[in-house]
Design brief:
This protein is an alpha/beta fold. The protein has six helices and 13 strands.
């Protein structure tokens, strides 16, 4: 199961409320959640990361807001269950961009990647992912969280990796897309998993603040919204022998 960007305190609390029963109902073996906005405001801090892991998530992925809060830097180096985009400069950036796990004696590699269209100036995604895949050829299952803005960039990466990895899911836009599929060579794909957080918001931010920012064009301090929540995710059914995806199921759970 891949879970869309968890936003703020209410998103973390809703994840804790809904994930255990979903894991049981759908017989989920392994859970990935993007947590780069799980702290209030944005970014991620050790407290929010621990809450996500304690909710039943196996590994947290990140994105362009991963490094907003400096208190997460030591945590990225010390905790084996959190990764950040692999195409940041590895020599100077806290944390790592990929991890290997054992799931019922099956080797699983999770890779976090960030796009460059309308995003950070980082190493080219295709170059970075080629190097990463070379390092995890010993893993039967390979899953990629591509944190990117442009839908075309995400789809192009999906086809580039088709047949080479088990699944590619997009994060960052907080808007769930309806294009979940198994690509021609067997890679599971969705352009964006969506968001876990307040429904009546603008990507998790109080709608009044976002509207004022659009109207007045003056920088404002974003605040996370409250109220009813949703959890958006996707389930990949992966053949452990071939490492390819059999089916993809998109879900949205709400209050």
């Amino acid at each position: 199961m891949a879970i869309g960007d968890v936003v703020g305190r209410v998103g973390v609390d809703f994840l804790k409320l809904k994930l255990p029963s979903l894991k049981k109902d759908y017989e989920i073996d392994f859970v990935i959640a993007n947590g780069e906005n799980s702290a209030e405001g944005n970014g991620i801090v050790p407290i929010s990361a621990n809450k996500i892991l304690n909710a039943g998530v196996d590994v947290i992925t990140g994105g362009n807001h991963t490094f907003r809060r400096r208190e997460i830097f030591p945590y990225l180096n010390e905790n084996q269950r959190i990764i950040r985009p692999i195409n940041y400069p590895s020599e100077s950036t806290p944390g790592v961009g990929m991890r290997k796990f054992k799931v019922r004696d099956i080797s699983v590699c999770v890779i976090n990647l960030i796009g460059v269209v309308y995003m950070e100036c980082v190493d080219l995604p295709l170059t970075a992912i080629d190097k990463a895949i070379e390092k995890c050829n010993d893993c039967a299952v390979k899953i990629v969280d591509f944190h990117a803005e442009a839908t075309a960039e995400k789809l192009a990466l999906g086809y580039y990796l088709d047949g080479r990895v088990s699944a590619v899911f997009g994060t960052h836009t907080h808007v769930q897309t309806s294009d979940e599929c198994v690509l021609p060579k067997g890679t599971g794909y969705i352009t964006d998993v969506g968001m876990t957080g307040p429904i009546h918001s603008v990507l998790g931010v109080k709608k009044e603040i976002s509207i004022r920012r659009m109207k007045e064009r003056i920088p404002v301090r974003f605040e996370n919204a409250d109220g009813p929540c949703k959890m958006e995710c996707v389930i990949f059914d992966i053949d452990e022998n071939t490492g390819l995806t059999r089916s993809v199921q998109r879900l949205r759970v709400s209050d």
